[in-house]
Design brief:
heterodimer; A: alpha+beta; Alpha-Beta Plaits; 2 helices; B: mainly alpha; Ammonium transporter fold; 2% strand; disordered C terminus
Chain lengths: 120, 437
């Protein structure tokens, strides 16, 4: 089991959702976040005040998956989120100690994506 | 009816001053209406399209457009007598000062081109838009304005357009249709749901539009008289009927009454009563308003199934609403109330003249808009590049965000000459090393 955390551009979030759906990855959480990677700061001006925006709007995906889904999920996110420009974001794959599905009490592999991708 | 006692010209001037301010308020009202309907990343650009029209169309109107519409000319176009406001002073035009008549008409020119922006939001570059507002006002709007209100051929034909159902709404909607086709759809059109980001803003905008519309319609009597009162009352009644009919349609079709639908219904009712305002009876306005809901309601549903990205449904609301209103003016016109009989009173010829005015205006507007956009596209690209559409036009074109939190913003200090630090104010590190100042 792994927890996949992906930080992507807000304008690519819909495409990422679609790619995950096509890859049959089910069950995810997204949140709007602000962060800073290596991108150049955008300059904004409000009346006489000029500012550089250090923090950029991003969308964070959190997806718990079984081992066999890790590469599928990473590939789906990368294919949909990449534009080639600095600021496309990152994907982190983290080990998970245990997972519980609240409704049923199922644990670990039983509580996330199926053990094998249906298309594999 | 006992006739209304005549009021003095001073009352006419006072009312038209107020009415002009009311009509001007419709443009920021439209900015709110359109702004709420787009995505959060494009709201400032969308609202700036309406505000930009105040400068672009307003100045072009003062410099050239007003003269082409209202200076003495022939059937198709006015003359050059009032170019750059020459000869527009405090002398009487009708019962009001000429300068006031100009100002009142100027507020119409501004809102008309601002309406067109609804078909072009979320993808048009701002510079070409500003150029378009100025050029369209002179090339397309001013001639149509002359045809109907400047003593041109449609006025001589006897077509009725009390406050601009044809001049403003059919004209703007035909331009919107052609411009949406010429510009192409938004990057995400047909791939993502493009939803309104702030429905309360839409409702606020609709409310301000209705408020301003009393100046638009009742002011078009150009006097504080019974005709203005009739136009005021029909402007109150028709949208009520449209709203009721629209809510009934919503209820019958989906079981729910929607807020965006209700705001749209108000605009449709206002558009439809615009040509009829001073010509139909109050009861006629109720019937007209209710009937006007039908074409626009089903037009909206049909448009969503086509490839036409008329983003904020200018064609369905202003086009179908305007055409319906213009034709129903020919049906419901009342000799007793407005001086001209319509179809219901046995005058079928009026309906034909109304149809002629609609067709002529739509064709002229479509052709002129197409030519203008083709010419503009030769000078500069019209569309915002797709990656920039993705990031949003507010940040990309204007360098601002509508709903930024201010977090992560690093102040860039202005590079102006700052007075040298006094010794006591020097940072410690430099004070000790002697490297200060």
């Amino acid at each position: 089991m792994k927890l996949i955390v992906a930080i992507v551009r807000p304008e690519r979030a819909s495409a990422v959702l679609e790619a995950l759906y096509r890859a049959e990855v089910r069950g995810l959480t997204i949140s709007r976040v602000q962060g800073h990677g290596g991108e150049t700061e955008a300059v904004q001006t409000y009346r006489g005040t000029t500012v550089k925006m250090e923090l950029v709007e991003k969308v964070r995906f959190e997806i718990g998956v079984s081992e066999s889904f890790v590469e599928v999920t990473v590939a789906a996110i990368r294919s949909a989120a990449a534009t080639g420009e600095v600021g496309d974001g990152k994907i982190f794959v983290l080990p998970v100690e245990s997972i519980v599905r609240i409704r049923t009490g199922e644990r670990n592999e039983g509580a996330v994506t199926p053990v094998a991708p249906a298309t594999a | 009816m006992s006739p209304l006692p005549p009021l003095t010209p001073a009352a006419d001037t006072a009312w038209l001053l107020v009415a002009s301010a009311l009509v001007l308020l419709m443009t920021p009202g439209l900015a709110l209406f359109y702004g709420g309907l787009v995505r959060a990343k494009n709201v400032l650009n969308t609202m700036m399209m309406s505000l930009g029209a105040v400068a672009g169309a307003g100045l072009a109107w003062a410099a050239i457009g007003y003269s082409l519409a209202f200076a003495p000319g022939q059937g198709l176009l006015g003359g050059p007598d009032h170019l750059l406001l020459a000869g527009v002073g405090l002398e009487a035009r009708g019962t009001v000062p000429h300068l006031l008549f100009f100002a009142f008409q100027g507020t119409f020119a501004v809102i008309t081109v601002a309406i067109v922006s609804g078909a072009l939001v979320e993808r048009l570059r701002f510079g070409p838009w500003l150029a378009f507002t100025a050029l369209w006002t002179v090339v397309v709007y001013a001639p149509v304005c002359h045809w109907v209100w400047g003593g041109g051929w449609l006025a001589r034909l006897g077509a009725l357009d009390f406050a601009g159902g044809t001049v403003v709404h059919v004209n703007a909607a035909a331009a919107a249709l052609v411009a949406a086709l010429a510009l192409g759809p938004r990057r995400d059109w047909g791939r993502q749901a493009l939803l309104p980001h702030n429905v309360p803003l839409v409702l606020l905008g609709a409310g301000l539009l209705w408020f301003g519309w009393f100046g638009f319609n009742a002011g078009s009597a150009l006097a504080a008289d019974g005709k203005a009162v009739l136009a005021f009352a029909t402007t109150l009644l028709a949208p009520m009927a449209t709203l009721a009919a629209w809510m009934a349609l919503d209820l019958a079709r989906t079981g729910r009454v929607t807020a965006v639908g209700a705001a749209t219904a108000l605009v449709v009712g206002l558009v439809a009563v615009t040509p009829a305002a001073g010509f139909v009876s109050p009861r006629g306005a109720l019937a007209l308003g209710a009937l006007a809901a039908l074409p626009s309601y089903f037009g909206l549903l049909a448009r969503a199934r086509t490839r036409l990205d008329d983003s904020l449904d200018v064609v369905a609301a202003h086009g179908l609403g305007g055409v319906t209103g213009a034709l129903l003016t020919g049906v419901f016109a009342s000799a007793q109330w407005g001086g001209t009989a319509g179809l219901l009173e046995g005058n079928a010829a009026l309906l034909t003249r109304q149809a002629a005015a609609v067709v002529a205006t739509a064709l002229w507007s479509a052709a002129g808009t197409w030519a203008l956009l083709r010419a503009l596209a030769l000078v500069a690209p019209l569309r915002v590049a797709e990656p920039r559409q993705g990031r949003g036009l507010d940040v990309e074109l204007h360098g601002e965000e509508a709903y930024g939190t201010g977090e992560g913003a690093i102040l860039v200090l202005p590079e102006v000459a700052t007075p040298p630090l006094r010794a006591a104010d020097r940072p410690l590190a430099t004070a000790g090393s002697g490297a200060g100042v």
